[in-house]
Amino acid sequence: MIKRFTLPTVTKMAVTLLMCGLAILIISPFLWMLSASFKIPAHIFNYPVEWIPKEWNFRNYGTVWGEKYQFMQYYWNTIKITLLTIFGSLLTSSLAGFAFAKLNFKGRDVLFLLYLATMIIPSQVLLVPRFIVFDYVGLVNSHWAIILPGIFSVIGTFLMRQFFITVPGELLEAGKVDGAGYWRIYWQIFLPLAKPALVSLLILTFTWSWNEYENPLIFLRDSSLYTLPLGLTNFVDENGTDYTLVMAASVSSLVPLIVIVAFFQKWFVEGIANTGLK
User: Among 216, 226, 218, 213, which residue's Cα sits nearest to residue 76?
Assistant: First the structure.
């Protein structure tokens, strides 16, 4: 018996094949980078592309993680900056989002719009005044010059506010009836419900902080304070660029991003859907 395909079935198959093709196209640069990290320099630009190296070279990763390039130190610096930025961003954004969503005070909506309007200011415009202020207080050439601006997030506040708006106001009133203050209501009632939004903000903040290049380049001077994006420039010298080492270092730096996104993917999708950022 010949099975007949209906128009919806054919359309679904076509869309599936199209999405598979796009997925392969998007992931192909990463696959090439992974392949190149195991090649010798002479084979990295062979054409046609050798997706599977003819001669596997595992020494690239040993060289990257050796003492010469201080890659372990860059990794630790990036982890420290990212974790502190995430903690501060989750705390300040959830507190501000709760206040803007559930607390009634004079000028609340105007203040929120003014805060939201700061997103139109390019970050490059603030580099010079920020450098002057940080230099005056002695924070230049320290990790705090990277961490402090990152813990106050306009997008994070907007994300948390949108989520808290969807939480029934009766929970706030019930907490007041039971004698709970605003801090206890926030900490014990609203914050546990905001897990999807917090995970979404965590992934976004992790990605931004982990890949941050501009601010470390401006505010950090000592190589011992460098982060991973700055550390990748150490593989470029007056003799050229060792692309096999760059690829090995890039793969090593991308592993935490892949793990975090894969682990929290379910809550990330739910958080984005619940906050209206579709």
Answer: 226
